[in-house]
Amino acid sequence: MAKESKEVGSSKFSYQKFFVYLFLISGSLISLFPFYYMFVMATRLNREINQVPPPFAPGANLVENFQKVLSSIDFFGAMWNSFIVASSVTVGTLFLCSLAGYTFAKLDFKGKNILFALILVTMMVPPQLGLIPQYYIITALGWLNDFRAIIVPGLINAFGIFWMRQYISSSVPDEIIEAARIDGCSHFRIYWNISVPMILPAFATLGIIVFMHVWNDFLWPLVVLRDPTMHTLQVALRALNDARQMDYGMIMSGTFWATVPLIIVFLLFNRLFIQSLSEGAVKS
Fold first, then answer.
1. 212 burial class (0-12, 13-18, 19+ CB within 10 angstroms)?
2. Orientation of helix 75-106 relative to helix 158-171, angle to 10°
3. Per the UniProt record, which residue ranges are transmembrane (predicted)?
4. Which residue, 143, 157, 173, 190, could crosslink 149 as a Cys pair with Cβ 3.0–4.6 Å?
């Protein structure tokens, strides 16, 4: 009887496991399908894309469509501009937000909670509302057509401070910090030599989010960068939209290759990214 009950329980567990994996695989396929179909369109000619029913298998025009992109815009120059901007903003954000997060998490000073609450309130304000005053400030500083107009305003953000503060609070023990203070370490040395090595997964997560956000940003670079040689990749891709005739194969080819660096960045840091999420799940 006990053996029969065990077999029933094992069968029930296997069925649950099967449906969980089925759900996860189905969700993954649905999530990946838009990217796959973008690749399919990047390998097809315009007349093939407009067929009914549309093609769902890759074609043979990937190189031809990408050559059209290269003849229309300075693709690699714009990609280099995006890489410089995204990398600079990401590195600056990781340093400043982690430093601010450490301050809010481990230091006591007057008005700390009020100041942190005000920072959180800024997350509720749409960034478009600050477009005009931010443009006036950039103009007054003489930073139009300059990468500083994109890099400097993006060096710190409320979400980054919030994320780092929460992660440091749960991942860096107070006992280690107190021991370092007794040994005579300064606040910055404690942050740099003790806290930073312990929060590398948080760095990876925030870095991926910031890099993707800056890489895909379109509105602000369009406003402050007028010189075509200074355009980031998303702004340069706009030139592929011809009002007279839309070449979807060419547009999707440019969009596909613009997405590849993001995939590479995620694959490089996905282990730390998953580690940070799993640690947060266990500690919560």
1. middle
2. 50
3. 20-39, 78-102, 114-135, 147-164, 190-215, 248-269
4. 143
**Closest C-alpha to 211, from 264, 164, 149, 251:** 264
Q: Give this prediction's pTM.
A: 0.85
Dihedral-angle region of residue 146 (phi above 0 means left; psi in -120 to 50 means alpha; beta otherwise): beta
Where the chain has pLDDT below 70, the residues are: 1-13, 242-244, 272-284
Q: Cα–Cα distance between 219 and 227 in angstroms, integer? A: 15
Asked if 74 contacts 227 with a C-beta cutoff of 8 angstroms, the reply is no
Rounded CA separation 193/183 (Å): 13
Would you give the DSSP letter of residue 55? P
Do 69 and 256 touch, CB atoms closer than 8 A? no
Please give the Cα distance from 49 to 153 (Å, whole number). 41
Give the model confidence (pLDDT) of 95-136 as tens digits.
999 999 999 999 888 989 999 999 999 888 888 888 889 999
Scan for tokens 């298998």, then name that residue. Answer: 57
Which residue bears the tokens 């005579």? 184
pLDDT at 48: 86
Phi/psi of residue 202, nearest 5 degrees:
-65, -35
Cβ-based burial of 159 (10 A; exposed 0-12, middle 13-18, buried ≥19):
middle
